[in-house]
Amino acid sequence: MKMCITAKGDTPDAQVEERFGRAPFFLFHDSEQDTYTAETNAFADAAGGVGPRSAQVLIDHGATVLVTGQLGGNARRAIEGAGIEVYQATAGSTVREAVAAYRENQLNRIL
After folding, report:
1. pTM over 0.90
2. Which domains does the chain have, with CATH numbers?
């Protein structure tokens, strides 16, 4: 399974970013190989429409789960249409902690 976590930095020890479309980085975690891959969010500073374009990045990477803080309406529709499950990140947690919390069923599903 491939999970995406919105992040403030490009390592698993970075804090989770609570804003999906404006997240500086997307960290993709491959649960089968227990590896992380970081991708800079090219749309983080765009004027508008960042949610659907950011959602397309997740779709292109084959993510089936997203851990973030909040989604805008357009991003929500795009992610829901792609069948990606969305879980609420714990404020102040790191990417690594978010993955562990997901594995232990400690995150609330929001979509």
Report:
1. yes
2. 2-103 (3.30.420.130)
